[in-house]
Amino acid sequence: MRKICVIGTGYVGLVSGAGLADFGNEVICSDIDHEKIEMLNNGEIPIFEPGLKELVDRNVTAGRLTFSADIESSILNSEVIFIAVGTPMGDKGEADLRAVESVATTISSNLNSYKIICTKSTVPVGTGSHLQKLIRSQCDADKEFDIVSNPEFLREGSAVKDFLLPDRVILGVNSDRAETIMRDVYRPLFINETPLVVTNIPSSEMIKYASNAFLAVKISFINEMANLSDKVGADVHTIARAMGLDGRISPKYLHPGPGYGGSCFPKDTEALVHTGEQYGVQFQVVKAAIEANKTQRHVILEKVQDLLPDLNGKIVAVLGLAFKANTDDVRDTPAIEIIRGLVDAGADVRAFDPIAAENMKKYYYSDLDTRDSVVETVDGADLVIILTDWNELRGLSLEDLKKRLRTPNIVDARNILSIDQLKTFGFNYRNVGRSRI
Ligand code: UDX
To answer: Is the dihedral angle over the CA atoms 188, 191, 196, 199 positive or is it negative?
Structure first.
């Protein structure tokens, strides 16, 4: 058991803090956002993440997890400090490390004993040595600390499971002392034989970017295969399934759609390209995946205009705003550009999302006409477009939907509807890579 402080209580920090407490550590989650800390101390969870409230409540009740807005005392009372603050994309695609550096400076003035400073946030390769120099320059020579890289692989919507049952744990260390302590932090995982990769800090930082960038490449690849499938009458789902039967490929992340979004793939791919450019290394494959992802939004808009060439004055019902199911997160969601394209073409847009509608209005379109149910959104519409793979949308009654639409047009950008049923009920439809089977 170790005394841990997690700085930053967002999607990564809060899940990681509660998970580390669940492993038997004593954890203080700290944040400069007093309001967020107050919510957490009142038993409220500031983000939507399935299973997180139960995980937090269980560990607060057990006395292993506390919340504090006093970052300095949290650091003073801890042995391992996880930095889990945001590293948003700067305007040239680089990762903005100002929050990370600010936390490092606070740590520098609170090194009352040997501490491990662990980057949990996604940080570009080289950040570990940058922090080592920064902290060393800001504290007395006798202060002892080690930097560790411990990247997260949490998917929003399944972050609790991904933390408690990870495919692997990556530790970037440069001392035996730090390795021993970090192994102890994650000890329960090794009891059930979770693979542990211990390496140097640059390799650990690279593993995070390499993993996310590769997944993004897979998605853009299958989207382009889908686009050709639509032209030649192939079925991209069969292609993906057959590809995935090859153990070297794996069937995962081969679901075509409107393109990836979220707070990670868009940011991490750009950051990797930017890092490469700093060292004179061209990431041509990742750059192509980024471009293909931007194009995919327009591919979906073209499908809409295949069915309704003149959108002027037409009512379009957008179902799904979150960048994926089981999250309220709309960062870089395909819905942003697709709604903009529909409005620019003169459409009257109505939108529905089970939980992300408020965020869409708060961060992007304050005047978006959002409705509280699918029925209210589709009644009288000329076309429906599905952008998020919510289970609620998978279960749509196409028979009922047909009666409610003014004209039976549907673009299923997530391939979640039955093509047989679409045909049976006489829809004009498009999907992604299965439109002509
Ligand atoms: C991702 C990584 O998976 C995770 O390991 C990392 O820590 C954070 O970034 P996340 O962004 O939460 O997680 O969601 P993920 O489920 O990976 O999906 C990312 C995007 O890709 C979503 O927009 C999703 O809709 C899209 N996607 C995913 C596809 O279009 N096709 C797929 O097959 C899989």
So the answer is: positive
pLDDT, tens digit (0-9, with 9 covering 90-100), for 43-95: 999 999 999 999 999 999 999 999 999 999 999 999 999 999 998 888 888 88
Integer Cα distance of 131 and 116 in angstroms: 12
* Band (333; pLDDT cuts 50, 70, 90): very high
Whether residue 204 lies inside any domain: the answer is no
- pLDDT band at 251; cut points 50, 70, 90: very high
Three-class secondary structure of residue 287 per DSSP: helix
Average pLDDT of 28-41? 96
Mean pLDDT of 277-305: 98
Please identify, by atom number, the ligand 1 atom nearest to the C-alpha of residue 223.
Answer: 30
Q: How far is the CA of 306 from the centre of ligand 1 (A)?
A: 28
128 and 51 in one domain? yes
Q: What are the pocket residues of ligand 1 if the criterion is a CB atom closer than 6 Å to any ligand atom?
A: 152-156, 212, 215, 219, 253-255, 257, 260-262, 264-265, 323-324
Question: From atom 22 of ligand 1, which residue's Cα is the shortest distance away?
Answer: 260
Centre of ligand 1 to C-alpha 260, Å, is: 7
Domain total in the chain: 2
Q: What is the pLDDT of residue 92?
A: 85
Q: Is residue 240 part of a domain?
A: yes
Sheet hosting strand 3-7, strand order edge to edge: 65-68, 26-30, 3-7, 80-83, 115-119, 145-149, 169-172, 196-199
Q: What is the DSSP letter of 154?
A: P
Neighbours of 252 (CB within 10 A): 10
Catalytic residues: 264
Range(s) of the domain holding residue 63 = 3-199
pTM across the whole model: 0.96
Residue nearest to atom 20 of ligand 1 (CA): 260
Give residue-wise pLDDT tens across range 383-408.
Answer: 999 999 999 999 999 999 999 999 99
* Residue 119 near residue 127 (C-beta atoms within 8 A): yes
Rounded CA-CA distance 265/219 in Å is 10
